[in-house]
Amino acid sequence: MKKTVLFTASLLTAVLVHAVTDGPLTPEQAIASFRLDPGLKIECVAQEPMVVSPVAAAWDEKGRMYVVEDRGYPVGPGKGKKPVGQVVLLESTHHDGHYDKRTVFADGLTFPNGVMCWKGGVYVTCAPYLYYFKDTDGDGVADVKQIVFKGFQDLSTTQLRVSHPILNVDGWVYLTSGLTSAKVSSPIYTNHPVVFCNRTDFRFKPDTDQFEPTAGTAQFGETFDSFGHKFICSNRNHNQAVMMQLKYLNRNTNAALADIVEDIPDHGAASKLYPLSDNITTSALHTGFFTSACGINYYRGTALPDDYKDNSFTCEPAGNLVHRDVISPTNTSFVAKRAQDGVDFLASPDNWFRPVNLATGPDGALYVCDMYRKTIEHPEYLPEATRKITDFESGKDKGRIYRITAASYKVQTKQFDVSTSKELCELLNSPDAWWRTTAQRLLLERQDKSVASTLKKMVKSGKIPEARVLALRLLECLNSLEDQQILTALSDKNVSVRENAMQVAEPRLSQSSRLTERLLAMANDSDARVRFQCALSLGELHDAKIIPALAKILDQNNDDKWTREAVLSAVDNHADVLLKTLLAGKNKDAAGMSAMLVELCRILGTSETPDKLASLLNQVTASNSDADAAWQQAAVTGIAEGIRVRGLVGKDQSPLLSLTSGDSTEAKLTRVRVEELVQRAVSSVKDANASLSQRLAAVGLLAQSEFSVSGKTLQSLIDPQQPAELQVAAVRALGRMPDADAGTVLVRKDRWSSYSPPVRDAALTSIMAKPRLIQTMLIAIESGDVPAWTVNEDRRTQLMHNKDESIAKRASAIFKDMQAGDRMKVYEEYKSVLAFKPDSKNGHAIFTKTCTGCHVVSGEGKTVGPDLTGIRNQPSDVLLLHIIVPEYEIMPTYTCYNVETKDGRSLTGLLAAESASNITLRQALGHEEIIPRSNIASMSASSLSLMPDELEKTMSKQDMADLVGFLKGM
What is the domain count for the chain? Predict the structure, then answer.
């Protein structure tokens, strides 16, 4: 007898008082313990032994469910033993929606974690491979076992692996990276070169030799809406939108484009959660945050009420719950709003409930894969003492799959009985996404061009926009698309249809004047996202005739960073034309135009001839008006930064001096104008009533000038009474100046002692970048002006191994007796502070002073290292471990890199972004250093954390106890 429970608000009390033991619950007990949104019901459709450790599910056209069982999680069966991961085929022989027949489809897998149906078989992700399994003799067991791709990383933990094969509307199958890099090749398509995926996901077109990196860095979770927009998640980021494809990011080699992913929740990337469980890694009945976000699903079914359409769901197995967001378009992006305050969509007081993945089934219901484990943590992330007492085995023989529907929903037993391709086309109009995508898949598998005429009609007359997009995309994949269908779709009333039509039009623009003219006109489209896509698509023309359209798009959305990035990616070699167009317009002083002009002029600085730059500088500074100062500062800063990056700055000269050093009348006039602009910047910096953004922009210009001109002003900003961001900007500006005095002022005894940790880190970063400044600092240490202990261990190590022998020798003499040695011993010594009574108020002050330059807690701080919101979920000894030994565990996305540049700088930071032409290093306070690949002499990953060692030396033991207490008590 199957048990169905309908939840109402009146059951909440019963849930809260439910007596949950430390042992496992039966499925019936588990169902009774759930808190679920009112008006819904939840059923267990498969349970142990029918299914064990389920992590992914997919249905074929016969309604059979393929389930991936990651039985070996977290570390496998042990050395010398056969892998135990399986793919099983579950069937409902009674067609009642409950699965009663199990067949092991494929076994002997290490850590399988994703599945997708294709041509009567399934693709399965199991690093380092993507497999294809198929049963050809009808016994339910795969006899075809083929490696389609290999080279995905399998050296990281089982939580960091390729996963989630999903067919998108464009006919490509997308896979997550697992936050790891990969060198992907195919044993089938041996002529295809190896594909390198660095900080990217992966995609391929089935049964073709097309495979490539794709935008996004998903961990265990990706999903798509019905129009191809991709959403991803990772442990601490539960809902991110991927904003553009890599081809757009990489095509303009002079543009320093960094971001392509955006956190979209309005309630924070990590998000406050409302668990009911008293988990062993959390405070009792705490209010937690995401620490294990995974399995994101954009719901597109019909078995839930209409309010659940365009909702996303994300699993949080550590908190024993599933979170729900309502997604809406906003400008060029999306916003995810919490569906309900104070509660989550599905939660249980049962610590064993471990939802890890979600899927929408043939019946339109939302399915939950529950691994049902006592512990859902990887041993490598725990201190050894905690690891020894943690039970990783209990639950390895269990697992459940739940179905969630509206309370009034009745089980659908309709079978997918379609014999002709034309009938498949009709199913594209289904309100249920599973039926649409299954019809799409079968049409792609068949490659039946006889349906082209039907699909062409559907582009215009499809009953729903989802059908019109699929018809358009299928025509493209069948090589049966004509310009007329694209033109029809470009005029569709639905925004997403128009957006897809632009993408489909791109390869044809150079050959079709009709399509080109239509896209140029769409620069005035009423929707911001369409205009955003218009800029991206027009860039595929590589023609100056798109510039007026790009300017129009900017006029309407210059305050939107994604619009600015789209335009910068599209401008190609016509940045000068766009600059001229913008300066002739009326919006050059608009809110977002300064940011645009900095980047646009930086492109010019990195690409134009010195004579052309002199002419541009003369044009930009022609006006002598306070009203124009803001945009002029931005433009001049950009040009100066461009020539600095390019290496055109003369020895011992500032960029501004190099730009204005000519003897011609025009050069002299420009020099006077630039000097006046710098003086306006000085005034702006000193103006306490100016906004922080205005003052920072002014510092950006002063950083391009000489120490004799702006040094005194910049020094005045390095004052505890000034905002930390302004102090750091001033330190970096001084560090970049060629004058010897600029470095000397950074290591003055009175100044060094007053530096807060972020400011001191910025000073050390600036000093470490230049050999001359390093020598200045070493002299200051030898004289006692700078305490040697303020140089953290990883920097001491770098100095003692510096390629300049004189620096290495001098540093060794200073630091050789100071190396910290075994940091684990320090950790053991400091464990006594866990018994101290913490003062959370003082702990907050310590955190603000020491940690906010790189970490965020509840919206406070800078995003460099991991967001610590919700870190309270970790035991106190784990928190102390990561403070004392920062490199104990470094997630791949937080790997620190050391970069030596050809112009003599040494830079360290996190690899925030990379394109074909640039990399971006992120340093303390979120500062980003953009480095052209052409200027990289060497680049290497470090085994050390960007977070400094020996943080304990900056505080007392009681302070350390207070800091841990604050983090635990947030």
Answer: 4
Beta strands in 280-410 (DSSP E): 294-298, 311-316, 321-330, 333-338, 346-347, 355-360, 366-370, 400-406
Q: What are residue 775's phi and psi, to 5 degrees?
A: -60, -40
Answer for the pair 263, 237: CB distance below 8 angstroms, yes or no. Answer: yes
The token pair that represents 512 in the structure block: 């079709």
Number of Cα atoms under 13 Å in the Cβ half of residue 161: 23
d(CA 441, CA 529): 28
Cα separation, 485 vs 515, in Å, equals: 11
* 377 and 255 together in one domain: yes
Task: Let me know if residue 630 belongs to a domain.
Answer: no
pTM of the complete model: 0.87
pLDDT digits (tens, 9 = 90+) for 495-549: 999 999 999 999 999 999 999 999 999 999 999 999 999 999 999 999 999 999 9
Mean pLDDT of 688-712: 94
- Distance between start and end Cα atoms, the chain: 45
Final residue of a domain: which of 373, 406, 439?
Answer: 406
H or E segment and range at residue 800: helix 793-800
Residue 488 has pLDDT above 80, yes or no: yes
Q: Domain range for residue 426?
A: 418-481
> What pLDDT was estimated at residue 283?
32
Can you name the residues that pair with 313 across neighbouring β-strands?
A: 297, 324
Q: Report the pLDDT averaged over residues 145-169.
A: 95
Q: Which residues lie below 8 Å from residue 531, measured CB to CB, with a gap of 6+? A: 332, 522, 523, 524, 525, 553, 556, 557, 563
Rounded Cα gap, residues 642 and 916, in angstroms: 18
